[in-house]
């Protein structure tokens, strides 16, 4: 509807649940959605591109961004900073486009405090045994990092209560289909439509 602001969707869930894969597949299929590229201090993995997968920055650069209040949320996760730049998200929502964040749970809880009208989607593992295997088999990290990521995943699952939707990632395509159904439903919500309708009638027609 004309004049409608975009909706902020927050995809989050435990480490190793497959958030990255689900997000990439979703974006291949839905070019209308806008992905907010995060800032991180971690080193690029093989094949990752600056400005596509992340904005890779130094700790000093990120500290300055934090001081200047440039993040909607940020979190320290397994020894590195990750943050969502505020300007891009606000501008894109104001243009009426939906914005998608794919972030870990501490950050999602901060977005919930600052942006309660966001739609919070928790990606859930099909089984906890499989989650453990995925973290161990990623193979790009040291034993210490794997152990820390497993500990994080345990704590993160306890945070499900703060979310609006839970999507089980049993198969990537099924998870993507469920997320697309959520996006469609959110646009049909009565309170969103009636608000815009009243604005339109108030300003344009009467
Ligand atoms: P990875 O290092 O595997 O790319 O990401 C580690 C975790 O950080 C993942 O759970 C990912 O969703 C999360 N993450 C990525 N970007 C952000 C961000 O901007 N903010 C927060 N809080 N977490 C993020």
Our count of helices gives 8
Helical/strand content category: alpha/beta
Helicity level, as a percent range? 40-55%
State the CATH superfamily name of the largest domain: P-loop containing nucleotide triphosphate hydrolases
Give a count of the beta strands, DSSP E runs of length 2 or more. Answer: 9
Taken together, the total number of domains comes to 2
Largest sheet: 5 strands, parallel
Q: What Rg is obtained from the alpha carbons, in whole angstroms?
A: 18 Å
**Strands across the major sheet, in which order?**
2-7-1-8-9
Query: What ligands can be seen in this structure?
Result: guanosine-5'-monophosphate
Average pLDDT, all residues: 90
How much strand?
A: 15-25%
Order of helices and strands: EHEEEHEEHEHEHHEHH
Verbal overview:
With 206 residues, the chain is α/β, with parallel strands linked by helices. It folds into 2 domains: 1-33 and 98-206, Rossmann fold (3-Layer(aba) Sandwich), CATH 3.40.50; 37-97, Guanylate Kinase phosphate binding domain (2-Layer Sandwich), CATH 3.30.63. Helices cover 47% and strands 18% of the residues. It contains 8 helices and 9 strands. The strands form 2 sheets. The protein has a 5-stranded parallel β-sheet, sandwiched between helices. A 4-stranded mixed β-sheet has the order 4-3-6-5. The longest helix is centred in the C-terminal third of the chain and has 16 residues, at 172-187. It is globular, with a radius of gyration of 18 Å. It starts with 7 loop residues before the first strand and ends with a helix. The mean pLDDT is 90. The chain binds guanosine-5'-monophosphate. Guanosine-5'-monophosphate binds next to β5 and β6.
């Amino acid at each position: 509807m004309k004049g409608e602001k975009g909706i902020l969707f927050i995809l989050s869930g435990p480490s190793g649940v497959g958030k990255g894969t689900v997000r990439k597949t979703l974006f291949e299929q839905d070019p209308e959605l806008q992905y907010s590229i995060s800032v991180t201090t971690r080193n690029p993995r093989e094949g990752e591109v600056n400005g596509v997968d992340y904005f890779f920055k130094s700790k000093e650069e990120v500290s300055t961004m934090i001081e200047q209040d440039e993040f909607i949320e940020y979190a320290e996760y397994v020894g590195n900073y990750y943050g969502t730049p505020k300007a891009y998200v606000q501008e894109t929502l104001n243009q009426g486009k939906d914005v998608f964040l794919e972030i870990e749970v501490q950050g999602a809880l901060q977005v919930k405090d600052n942006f309660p009208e966001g739609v919070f989607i928790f990606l859930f593992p099909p089984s906890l045994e499989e989650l453990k295997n995925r973290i161990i088999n990623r193979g790009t990290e040291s034993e210490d990092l794997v152990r820390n990521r497993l500990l994080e995943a345990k704590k993160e699952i306890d945070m499900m209560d703060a979310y609006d939707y839970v999507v089980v990632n049993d198969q990537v395509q099924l998870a993507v289909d469920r997320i697309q159904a959520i996006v469609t439903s959110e646009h049909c919500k009565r309170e969103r439509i009636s608000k815009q309708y009243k604005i339109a009638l108030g300003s344009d027609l009467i």
